Automatic annotation (TrEMBL):
It is found in: Cytoplasm, Cytoskeleton, Cilium axoneme. Residues 99-285 form the Dynein heavy chain AAA module D4 domain. PANTHER family: DYNEIN HEAVY CHAIN, DYNEIN HEAVY CHAIN 6, AXONEMAL-LIKE-RELATED. One of its GO terms (molecular function) is dynein light intermediate chain binding. The keyword Zinc does not apply. Its main location: cytoplasm. Keywords: ATP-binding, Cell projection, Cilium, Coiled coil, Cytoplasm, Cytoskeleton, Dynein, Membrane, Microtubule, Motor protein, Nucleotide-binding, Transmembrane, Transmembrane helix. The chain crosses the membrane at residues 141-161. One of its GO terms (cellular component) is dynein complex. This is Dynein heavy chain AAA module D4 domain-containing protein. One of its GO terms (biological process) is microtubule-based movement.
Length: 286
C-alpha cells in the first residue's frame, strides 16, 4: 500500500490529488491495523480464558511414586495428585482412627505444603486457620505420607513444665540419638506463654536451654560419642553436642496450629518473634 502511494506521488503532478489519495490510504491502513489488532487481542483473551478454566497447578512434593515408592522431589502431575493422597488416606484409616476427611483441592495442596515444609532441617509449619478447618487432620495425613512419627502431648490439669521437659528429653533421644523423624504437633489450646519459651528455643536453634543438667548432658554425650566418631567428626564435648543438635534439627519438626480469630496470635507473635521468623506459614482460608 505504501509502495503504491510512493509510485503515485512520483507520477502525479497535482498536489491536491496526492493529498487526497494519501488521506484515503491512511484511513484504509488505520482500519486494517485496527482489525488485525482486534483479532490478535481477541485470540489472547480466549487463550487466557482457557488457561483460567483449566490451569495446571505447580505442585511439588517427594511422594510422586506413592508412600512406598522412591522419594524424589519433583512436580506432581495434577491428574495423579488426588489418587496418590486418597490412597494414603485409605491406608491411614485402615491403620488408625478414621478421620473422615474430604480431600478437596485446597486440602490436597495443604498436605503437599506441609510435607514440603518439613523436608529441610529446621522446617516447622505454622498453620493458621479457623477451628475445624482440618489443620491437625491434614498434618496427621502428611506425617503418615512422610513416614514420620507423630507426637502430641496429653494435656491435663496435672501436666506441668517438668512433664514438658521430660517429653522434650524423650524427643531428643528419639530424633537426636536414634535419628527417628518426628513431627511434634501443638495446637493452640496446648500452648501457653510458659511453654512457648521452650518451643521458641526449639524453633530457632533446636537447642532448648536448661533441658539437661550437667550430669545428664555428660551421660548423653558419652552415649553418642561412638556415633560421632563413626561420622568422622571430632569426639570432643562441644563437637558431640553440636552433632546431637544437628540431628535434632534434621529430624525433629514442630507443627503449630493457631486460629486467626481474636488477639491471641497477634500478641504471642509480638512477644515470641520465632513463631513467625522460624516457621513457614500456611493459611487455611475458609
Amino acid at each position: 500500500m505504501y509502495l503504491a502511494l510512493y509510485g503515485f506521488n512520483n507520477k502525479s503532478n497535482k498536489k491536491c490529488e496526492r493529498s487526497e489519495v494519501g488521506f484515503n490510504i491512511a484511513i484504509l491502513s488505520s482500519k486494517e491495523y485496527h482489525e488485525k489488532s482486534t483479532r490478535y487481542q481477541t485470540n489472547l483473551i480466549v487463550q487466557r480464558q482457557i488457561l483460567n478454566l483449566y490451569p495446571e497447578n505447580l505442585i511439588f512434593c517427594n511422594f510422586i511414586a506413592g508412600i512406598g515408592g522412591d522419594r524424589c522431589y519433583d512436580q506432581m502431575p495434577n491428574d495423579k495428585l488426588e489418587p496418590v493422597i486418597t490412597k494414603a488416606l485409605k491406608e491411614y484409616n485402615d491403620n488408625f482412627a478414621d478421620m473422615g476427611l474430604v480431600l478437596f483441592e485446597d486440602a490436597l495442596k495443604h498436605v503437599c505444603r506441609i510435607t514440603r515444609i518439613v523436608l529441610p532441617p529446621g522446617g516447622h509449619p505454622l498453620l493458621i486457620g479457623q477451628r475445624s478447618s482440618g489443620k491437625q487432620s491434614l498434618t496427621k495425613l502428611a506425617v503418615f505420607i512422610m513416614t514420620y512419627t507423630l507426637f502430641m502431648i496429653s494435656i491435663s490439669s496435672y501436666y506441668g513444665m517438668n512433664d514438658l521437659r521430660n517429653d522434650l528429653r524423650l524427643l531428643y533421644q528419639k530424633s537426636g540419638v536414634k535419628g527417628e523423624p518426628i513431627m511434634f504437633l501443638f495446637n493452640e489450646v496446648q500452648i501457653t506463654n510458659e511453654r512457648l519459651t521452650y518451643i521458641t528455643d526449639l524453633l530457632t536453634s533446636g537447642e532448648v536451654a536448661e533441658l539437661y543438667n550437667s550430669d545428664e548432658k555428660e551421660d548423653l554425650i558419652n552415649q553418642i560419642r561412638p556415633k560421632v566418631k563413626a561420622d568422622g567428626r571430632s569426639d570432643t564435648r562441644d563437637s558431640c553436642w553440636g552433632w546431637l543438635i544437628d540431628r535434632v534439627r534434621q529430624n525433629l519438626h514442630m507443627t503449630l496450629c493457631f486460629s486467626p480469630v481474636g488477639e491471641s496470635l497477634r500478641k504471642r507473635a509480638s512477644q515470641f518473634s520465632a513463631l513467625i521468623n522460624s516457621t513457614v506459614i500456611d493459611w487455611f482460608h475458609p
